[in-house]
Amino acid sequence: MATTREGRTQNALIHARIGDEDRMSTTAQGSQWLAQQVRWTLGHALPRIAIAGAARRDELHSQFVAQSSTPDPTGAGDRRLHHLMDRIRDQGPVPQGRYGYVTASHAVVRQVLSSNDFRTRIIRDRTSPLARLAAWSAANAPMGPLRPPSLLVTEPPEHTRYRKLVTRVFSAQAVQQLRTRTEKIADGLLGDLQRGEPGAAPVDLVASYCSLLPVTVIAEILGVPNSERQRLRAFGTSLAPSLDYGLPRRRFRAVERSLIGFDRWLAHHIERVRREPGDNLLSQLVAARDDDGSGLTDIELRSTAGLVLGAGFETTVNLLGNGIGLLHRHPDQRAALGDDPTLWPNAVDEMLRFDPPLFRTGRTAARDTTVAGRAIPQGTTVALLLAGANRDASVFAEPHRFDITRTNAKDHLSFSTGRHYCLGAALARMEGEVGLRTLYERFPRLDLTAGARRRGTRILRGYERLPARLKPTSA
Fold first, then answer.
1. Architecture of domain 2-469
2. Which of 38, 139, 221, 232 is least surrounded by CB atoms within 10 angstroms?
3. Residues paired with 100 in a beta bridge
4. Contact 472, 454 (CB under 8 A)
5. Backbone dihedral region for residue 365 (phi beyond 0: left; psi -120 to 50: alpha; all else: beta)
């Protein structure tokens, strides 16, 4: 009888403990849900409402932001955006908007990107209730390209140490060694397309080529086995809006789920690479050591690998797709490349200038400073329209003309500049050159068909769909 009573007591204690754990779990889930709601409200819902209101009041920068996420297959949307950027530049080097400053001036964009007076992250007054709420909600946010220790948002001295280690691995020599492999990958992908009866029906070049080439290269850089490359591609596509703001709630939640899933996958993958290092750049990065013998931490490794995919995949997809679209609209430039293939490297830089994969960025003043004669107070944000700087007539003659022979095409700012100059710039240029040159050598009479669609993202700029007929040379 005593044993039975004792057993009942133990069962009651167990059930009470389970109930406490359930309540704690429910409370934690509720707290996480609330934090996510706050992140979406502060980072997306409120900015979206504010921008829409300012756009209705004819504030040029807000009009630009409001229109930049509207896909338009006709190209008229792109022309409107560039017209707005021209009008912003006409207002002066650093005109003041409703929510900060904005510039489409090449000189000012370059100055701000290179200046130690500016930082990549917003500097908040942490004493205000709203700032404390934002900090609380960010504490459990998933790791992504806009959260430390991402190279996109870290600053010296952490950035200096971090980038030094990463640059040793992602060197120009390493990229050059990848060129031969990239050529083989491109040949293989185009061979698959050629065997699929070219000319019989349109194929979506984004799905069948522009996305497959960079994700295969990145998979080899990261040492990802063939069985998981489709999963890597899905992650790359789903993470593209993580750089955006003003996202609808459903899309924001989907992006955060993808970030969490990708981070978990990366943790397992890096452990696998530690156990079984291979002949890939991620294995080298895991083994890399600074002068004092220290290497990258686990979170820094995951952040770097994530940035390789998040930034290196989507931007290259966009570079390839944008390049195909430009050559379709400018057949004379396409013919010039056929006559003189040595123009391809310069053509890729002109594509990056004329239709950049990264449309805009921003910086926040770390201290009171002056830019182009205008006082910029500490904590003020300056929106940097990279696409506008790339069409500045003070730098580029006839800036709205696509010209693959342009002598200063490389002066574009599509890869940023200064300490945050794109780590993968050489890789992107190489993939763009190899990918496009190989495509047009295999299908010189390639012809786009109806149905092209731009992505609905504000920061990254490219095609979601690009249907084409792959006409063989003899057709």
1. Orthogonal Bundle (1.10)
2. 139
3. 97
4. no
5. beta
Q: Residue 70: what residue type?
A: T
Comparing C-alpha atoms, which of 458, 194, 168, 216 is closest to residue 320?
A: 216
Q: Tokens in use for 324?
A: 């195909």
Question: Cα–Cα distances in Å, from 342 out to 284, 324, 326, 401?
Answer: 33, 18, 18, 21
- Residue-range domain boundaries for the chain: 2-469
Query: How far is it, in rounded angstroms, from Cα 333 to Cα 350?
Result: 11
Question: Which of 112-116, 276-280, 334-338 is predicted with the least confidence, judged by mean pLDDT?
Answer: 276-280
Whole-Å CA distances, 449 to 182, 199, 467: 27, 11, 6
Cα gap 289→273, rounded to integer Å:
16
Left, alpha or beta for 172 (phi > 0: left; psi -120 to 50: alpha)?
Answer: alpha
What is this structure's pTM?
Answer: 0.90
pLDDT exceeds cutoff 50 at 18: no
Q: What is the DSSP string of 383-440?
A: EE-HHHHTT-TTTSSSTTS--TT-TTGGG--TT--GGG--TTHHHHHHHHHHHHHHHH
Report the alpha-carbon distance of residue 309 to residue 330 in Å, rounded. Answer: 31
> What does DSSP say about strands 381-384 and 100-103: parallel, antiparallel, or unpaired?
parallel
Per-residue DSSP letter, 368: S
Handedness of CA 241, 247, 249, 250 (dihedral sign): negative
User: Is the confidence at residue 1, as pLDDT, over 50?
Assistant: no
CA distance 344 to 91: 36
Is 80 exceeded by the pLDDT of residue 82?
yes
Residue 211: what residue type? Answer: S
Per-residue DSSP letter, 460: B
**pLDDT value of position 364:** 94
